[in-house]
Write a structure and sequence with these properties.
This protein is of the alpha/beta class. The protein has 16 helices and 17 strands. The strands form three sheets. An eight-stranded mixed beta sheet has the order 4-3-2-5-1-6-7-8, with helices on both faces.
């Protein structure tokens, strides 16, 4: 099979959640454990960091991977979903998995896994763990796929666990209260393994404290130790942070929500360094571009080079300036509580410079999100290009338009992201601002 034929086989033989939704979800770890035994428990041949959360886990995972690469480690990175190509999910020192390896894996192993009827994510996780072992990574940053307790990445015992935040998402699988969702996410907390909680509420804090106490896991609540004094966007689309202990930091990721992500990362540095030292892997200041760097230098480089080093994209990503085109994978209510304010801020700033500047938004969502709540947050002073991504989970664009019209939003309907974006570009002057988002899949179609 070719690479594309192999991917088509995987999507059909082992349905992907992002393709078909609930029909691809499998509860429990039995299949994962069976696959892990078959491949000789590859995840035990390297160290890991486990990252869960409703939002922000991708940015946190990629930034930690970049930092570890700069420190001189060979780093595996496992994330989902991909935006343009499947190989984005599995990386070693930023390089995506070889296409030939994916093809060979399926051809060699299908005789074994087909009778198990694994989900796409179960199979992908087994592939990633095996790939990292064969490429002899020192440490792998593993992002949870869905939830935590029953997620198939949860067979690892990491050096450090991180839970970025908890908000309402995937409630059909994880529960309809913050406490229930927190219980699922808290499932990644392991005996004696330090855990960092990025954001919490009074309800979720109790859940995390109880689980950590039951398994004797040291716990850090990042909100209790906020390193970030303030932050502001920079002219190049990034973000500048004034911090308590790290001076002024600058990052290439420009979303307002990155302030929370960076504080989670900063609170993770000390427990991670202690765990590495305990394992005899203390991050020495290895040369970067043949220069000696302090750990603080490494952090600064990681924040500014994370996208180029790890392939991270779709996070308040600026594609062009005239007109300004930005996309973001924020796809649920929690994300839009930040995105809506930031979009409005940028649009108003441009309006002050040129009164003729218009805000245009290419927007679509998928069927397991609270679309009505998100629509209530969308900027009213914008023209919308309602669309749908190429996935069975996409809410039809005309349905979104109907709900949006009921809320006073104005726009047109397009049956593809490509058509919606092309029309937005046709309608735009050089000073306009086009935002593309609402779903990771809308951004994926756009970047493709």
């Amino acid at each position: 099979m070719t690479y594309n034929e192999t991917l088509e086989y995987l999507y059909n033989a082992a349905p992907a959640f992002e393709k078909v939704g609930a029909g691809a979800y499998k509860e429990g770890l039995n299949t994962t454990i069976t696959l892990d035994e078959h491949f000789g428990h590859p995840h035990k041949r390297y160290h890991t960091i486990h990252v869960a959360g409703t939002n922000g886990k991708g940015s946190v995972s990629h930034t930690l991977a970049a930092l570890l690469q700069i420190a001189g480690y060979k780093v595996g990175l496992y994330t989902s979903p991909h935006l343009v190509d499947f190989s984005e999910r599995i990386r070693v020192n930023g390089k995506p998995i070889d296409h030939d390896y994916v093809v060979d894996f399926v051809e060699r192993e299908r005789y074994y896994f087909e009778p198990l009827h694994p989900s796409f994510f179960e199979l992908t996780t087994a592939l990633a763990f095996k790939y990292f072992a064969e490429h002899e990574v020192d440490i792998a940053v593993i992002e949870v796929g869905l939830g935590g307790r029953l997620d198939c990445t949860n067979i690892i015992t990491p050096l450090l666990s991180i839970i970025t935040n908890i908000s309402f998402d995937h409630t059909a699988f994880l529960g309809d209260t913050l406490e229930k969702i927190a219980e699922e996410k808290a499932g990644i907390i392991k005996k004696g393994v330090p855990v960092v909680i990025g954001e919490h509420t009074s309800e979720t804090r109790k859940v995390f404290e109880t689980k950590a106490e039951n398994v004797s896991a040291p716990i850090i609540f990042a909100q209790d130790n906020n390193y970030i004094i303030s932050s502001q966007p920079t002219d190049d689309g990034g973000r500048e942070y004034k911090t308590k202990c790290f001076g002024v930091l600058r990052g290439v990721l420009g979303g307002a929500y990155q302030e929370k992500n960076l504080n989670t990362i900063l609170n993770s540095l000390l427990p991670l360094a202690r765990c590495l030292k305990k394992k005899g892997l203390f991050p020495m200041p290895v040369g970067y571009d043949k220069k000696e760097n302090t750990p603080l230098d490494m952090l600064r480089i990681a924040l500014t080079e994370v996208c180029s080093m790890t392939g991270l994209s779709g996070r308040w990503q600026i594609l062009q300036q005239q007109p300004l085109v930005i996309c973001d994978t924020g796809h649920n209510l929690a994300a839009w509580q930040y995105l809506s304010k930031q979009i409005t801020f940028v649009a108003e700033l441009r309006k002050k410079k040129n009164k003729r500047s218009n805000l245009r938004i290419v927007f679509g969502m998928v069927d397991d999100k609270d679309v009505k709540a998100v629509l209530d947050l969308l900027p009213p002073k914008a023209y919308y290009y309602f669309t749908q991504a190429y996935t069975h989970r996409a809410i039809p664009a005309d349905r979104i338009c109907q709900l949006a019209t009921e809320r006073g939003l104005q726009g047109q309907v397009f049956n593809s992201v490509k058509k919606a974006y092309r029309k937005a570009m046709e309608d735009s002057a050089a000073d306009d601002f086009i935002f593309v988002g609402g779903s990771s899949y809308v951004v994926a179609d756009f970047l493709s």
